[in-house]
Amino acid sequence: MGLFGTAGIRGDVTTTVTPSLALEIGRALGVDAAAEDAEVVIGRDGRTSGPGLAAAVESGVLAAGVDVTRVGVVPTPALAYASKGQYGVMLTASHNPPADNGIKLFRQGTEYTRDREKIIESRVTAENTPVSWQTWGTTAHAEIISGYRDTVLTYANRYGKTPAELTIAVDCGNGVGALATPPILDRMGAEVVTLNGAIDGHFPGRESKPTAESLTDLRTIVENGQFDFGIGHDGDADRLVIVDRDGAVVHEDTVLAILAAHLVNVSDVADPVVVTTPNASARIDEHVQAADGRIERVQLGSLHEGIRDAEIAGGDVVFAGEPWKHSHPALGGWIDAIASAAVLTRLIAEDGLPTLRGPIRERPYRKESLECPDEKKSAVMEYLKQTAAEEFPDAEIETEHGIRATFPDNAWTLIRPSGTEPYVRVYAEATPETIDSLTQNAITTVSAAVNAVDTTDTVDSQPE
């Protein structure tokens, strides 16, 4: 059925994430919660379709005989925090357009694994009958945002120093991050100016996805004002973008490297591990290794599973991150851009952003998308697995999460299929002298594979 992507279910509310689907997801999740005699917490972002979808999920959960706590409009990290000890549902499409919405499932503060999502999908397609009317669940309402803010503040105060002399511009993009990041930074002692702080599901201030282009107003204000840096969030505050005092967006992998290395440095564990993804820069490896930590890579969108696997193997995960998204295991198992904003603020207060960036080798980074029909992706990737050693003869080849070729000078390229669109993605990082040729070589390799593979081919028919 393939309902779940790399970040829950997302899509148009008239064709994909409909009230009917939300009802069935609620009932399917209720089966899990009932088995553990647990409750389900339901939250939503500011999208106009949120109230209807939340009501539909609630109906499904109640019909499964499980009690519901409605927590209203909250950031996704706050909903995850509230789901500790129980189950959670967040209605959000994150940075997608206003016509979309989505459903993310949590258990004990952590996103559902792919295996658990498959079980939910199987229940959605099966016939479902509500439990006896005598055992339907009940609904309560709770305010959880203040407790979440207190928890993040306590966590962030372990690091850096009080930002009493910092002035920060925070662009919340009309999203729910406005409920948490500005108040937390204000309580820390920083002077905070908020842009697009009114929660509005139409996102009138800017596109919900925080990019260099959509954050033009923030960048201009920071560059022309007396600001130390700027922060940009997406619609549900699980993404973070940092803008330096010159109005330039700091590369997301540099932000990741700063946080990762610091949390390794201050840890007191024997084997500090940072979990990241194959498309993350080698600058993260270099900075973490210099701090005597090590890197474990996991499939994009699976940080929570990577944390679990690394801990099962005996490592102590001190941080996990993929571009724009970060998880702080000492705080909880969820993605939390608000916590990262708070920690970074205190690190910048102590050392300054230029000093934090100084040791990090920032080489050119490229990302390209090449058209590839969904039905050809598997055969194309198998073709590339079998030809990668020939195409990249000087590289170390890894094929667990796409095709990643790492060269002796730590340059690398990654080829992976998109999980949501008809594309194969190409990533590359290298020196200014070699980045163009490395990227073009990868593009040519993928194009040749797409052209060579016929939709009727099987894996066995690909070249050895």
Structure description:
This protein is α/β, with parallel strands linked by helices. It has four domains: 9-143, Alpha-D-Glucose-1,6-Bisphosphate, subunit A, domain 3 (Alpha-D-Glucose-1,6-Bisphosphate, Chain A, domain 3, 3-Layer(aba) Sandwich); 148-243, Alpha-D-Glucose-1,6-Bisphosphate, subunit A, domain 3 (Alpha-D-Glucose-1,6-Bisphosphate, Chain A, domain 3), CATH 3.40.120.10; 252-336 and 351-357, Alpha-D-Glucose-1,6-Bisphosphate, Chain A, domain 3, CATH 3.40.120; 365-461, TATA-Binding Protein. 36% of the residues lie in helices and 21% in strands. Strands 1, 2, 3, 4, 5, 6 and 7 form a seven-stranded mixed sheet that branches. A five-stranded antiparallel sheet has the order 16-20-19-18-17. The chain has a four-stranded mixed sheet with strand order 9-8-10-11, sandwiched between helices. Strand 17 and strand 18 (403-406) form a beta hairpin.
Q: What does the secondary structure layout of this molecule look like, with pairings?
A:
Layout: E1 9-12, H1 19-35, E2 40-44, H2 50-63, E3 68-73, H3 76-82, E4 87-91, E5 100-107, E6 110-111, H4 114-125, E7 139-141, H5 145-156, E8 167-171, H6 181-188, E9 191-195, H7 216-224, E10 229-233, E11 240-243, H8 252-265, E12 272-276, H9 282-290, E13 294-297, H10 303-312, E14 316-322, E15 325-327, H11 337-351, H12 353-357, E16 365-371, H13 377-391, E17 396-398, E18 403-406, E19 412-417, E20 423-429, H14 435-452
Parallel strand pairs: 2-3, 2-4, 3-7, 8-9, 8-10, 12-13, 12-14
Antiparallel strand pairs: 1-5, 4-5, 5-6, 10-11, 14-15, 16-20, 17-18, 18-19, 19-20
Helix pairs in contact: 1-2, 1-4, 5-6, 5-11, 8-9, 13-14
